[in-house]
UniProtKB/TrEMBL annotation, chain A:
Keyword annotations of the record: Membrane, Transmembrane, Transmembrane helix
Pfam families linked to this entry: Tim17
Source organism, top-level taxon: Eukaryota
Location(s), subcellular: Membrane
Cellular-component GO terms for this entry: TIM23 mitochondrial import inner membrane translocase complex
Name of the featured protein: Mitochondrial import inner membrane translocase subunit TIM23
Single GO MF descriptor: protein transmembrane transporter activity
Primary location: membrane
Topology relative to the membrane: Multi-pass membrane protein
From TrEMBL, chain B:
Gene Ontology annotations of biological process type: protein import into mitochondrial matrix
Protein name: Mitochondrial import inner membrane translocase subunit TIM17
Recorded topology in the membrane: Multi-pass membrane protein
InterPro entries hit by this protein: Tim17
The organism's place on the tree of life at top rank: Eukaryota
Organism encoding this protein: Wickerhamomyces pijperi
TrEMBL record, chain C:
Originating organism: Wickerhamomyces pijperi (Yeast)
Domain of life: Eukaryota
Protein's name according to its UniProt entry: DUF4536 domain-containing protein
PANTHER family found in the cross-reference section: ACR195WP
Length: 218, 156, 105
């Protein structure tokens, strides 16, 4: 049981030393009088006999096994970055942002497709044909918008995290600048005018997002 | 088990997995279609060819990866809630259902084959992950301290 | 990337504590919505309405027993989705711990 009570020094080497010296050594290590016990069950059943705090002062085993928490679960330390969902760093921001924006894009695109499909049906079509037309329009529009919105969200989050890292703090200016950068990059093959438009639109959208978060108190 | 203080995992982790898989798909698609577009274009037009291939194909690949990741995470959460147990087996069952769901439009044979393939693939990944973990634990196992020199003999 | 990363880094096997699986409103909303959508999709005939292949090929790809089992699965999913939805709104079939949590709100 030495793994539980510690390794008393030279206990195994002094097999012929007197009982008193070895027990006094052992007593100072174990913290209780070893001569009062006769077998293991009396150790275990003694209240306070298995005091885990004596194993190591910082063991803290009475707090449950929270010592298993890894460092990567600590929240993001950059000031001002705590937001709607607690994030653990840029990869979390990226994943949640991309996922949320993709699903939002899917919904908006689906709604747009729904309206488009409603516009396409004629009076004379039977019920199933109408349903099919609408559903086809929804499944054509939704993923297209979702994919592009998701790509934009990834670019936005990457630039936002880069600017955060360079500047060391996170405020509205970062978000707007990141929005402008990602909009410009997204349309960079279409010419300067398109880039400027996309940049302005994305900067506006991220400014609105910052304003929305501020109105909620973040 | 350590409580995750930052969030309640299962509903929100689906978004996380969706976005992560989507990002991986977009970046992978950019690389793949960039190289493919580069190689399949005539000599004067290689970079524009690569760029146009990326712009047209990469978001779609991202979407496919994202759907796979999101579905996998959803089924994983569902299986975890039903079994009320966190296990490597959850991922294999979830993989079975993902493979089946994604192939269901192809008829029953395609569904069955795809489900079994996906489950086996995930089983292999889980096995590799477990072996890697055990290897790391074996590497970091505590070594006994070396005995001091000049040790007294045990017997008197 | 929690669930996907956990494939390569599996956590040790354990049973879940009741706090983790009880009283999860987003879970119930997602389950209801997902089950009802999936169930209704299975109950329509859109899975095997492919105009590009002949009827014989279609019956070989999707035989009658397969179609019936998908439709049965659709019915089960809609039923389960409705059950989860009603469970959330009326709050019955929750054990003591969760009902005390709700009453505190």
């Amino acid at each position: 049981m030495s793994w539980l009570f510690g390794y008393p020094a030279k206990k195994q080497e002094d097999s012929t030393s007197t009982a008193t010296t070895s027990t006094s050594q052992i007593d100072s290590q174990l913290g209780f009088d070893a001569s009062t016990i006769s077998d293991v069950s009396s150790i275990i059943s003694t209240p306070g006999g298995l005091d885990s705090s004596r194993l190591h002062p910082l063991a803290g085993l009475d707090k449950g096994i929270e010592y298993l928490d890894l460092e990567d679960e600590s929240l993001n330390a950059i000031e001002g970055s705590q937001s709607l969902l607690p994030s653990r760093g840029w990869s979390d921001d990226l994943c949640y942002g991309a996922g949320t924006v993709y699903l939002a894009g899917l919904t908006v695109g689906g709604a747009q497709g729904f309206l488009e499909g409603l516009g396409k049906i004629n009076r004379s079509d039977p019920g199933k044909l109408r349903l099919n037309t609408v559903l086809n329009a929804v499944t054509k529009r939704g993923p297209f918008l979702g994919n592009n919105a998701g790509v934009l969200a990834i670019l936005y989050n990457l630039s936002c995290s880069t600017i955060d890292g360079v500047r060391g703090k996170h405020d509205g200016f970062n978000s707007v600048a990141a929005g402008a950068l990602s909009g410009a990059f997204f349309k960079c093959t279409k010419g300067v005018k398109q880039m400027a438009y996309a940049s302005a639109i994305m900067a506006g959208v991220s400014g609105a997002w910052v304003g929305f978060k501020a109105s909620l108190g973040y | 088990m350590s409580a995750d203080h930052t969030r309640d995992p299962c509903p929100y982790v689906i978004l996380n997995d969706f976005g992560g898989a989507f990002a991986m798909g977009v970046i992978g698609g950019c690389v793949w279609h960039g190289i493919k577009g580069f190689r399949n274009s005539p000599y004067g037009e290689r970079f524009p060819g690569a760029l146009s291939a990326i712009k047209s194909r990469a978001p779609g690949i991202g979407g496919n990866f994202g759907v796979w990741g999101g579905l996998f995470s959803t089924y994983d959460c569902a299986v975890k809630a039903i079994r009320k147990r966190e296990d490597p087996l959850n991922a294999i069952i979830a993989g079975f259902f993902v493979g089946g769901s994604l192939a269901i439009r192809g008829g029953w044979r395609h569904t069955r084959n795809s489900a079994i393939t996906c489950a086996c693939l995930l089983g292999v990944f889980e096995g590799v992950g477990l072996m890697f973990q055990r290897y790391m634990a074996w590497q970091n196992k505590p070594m006994a301290p070396p005995l001091p020199d000049g040790q007294q003999p045990l017997a008197a | 990337m929690s669930n996907i990363v956990n494939i390569f880094n599996p956590k040790p096997s354990r049973d879940l504590t009741p706090e983790e699986y009880a009283d999860c409103l987003p879970c119930q909303i997602m389950a209801t919505f997902g089950c009802i959508t999936a169930g209704s999709y299975f109950l329509t005939d859109r899975l095997w309405n492919d105009p590009n292949i002949s009827l014989k090929e279609n019956l070989e790809k999707n035989p009658i027993w397969w179609r019936n089992s998908i439709k049965g699965l659709g019915v089960l999913l809609i039923g389960y989705g409705g059950y989860r939805g009603l469970e959330a709104s009326w709050g019955w079939n929750q054990d003591q711990k969760t009902s005390t949590k709700l009453s505190e709100k």
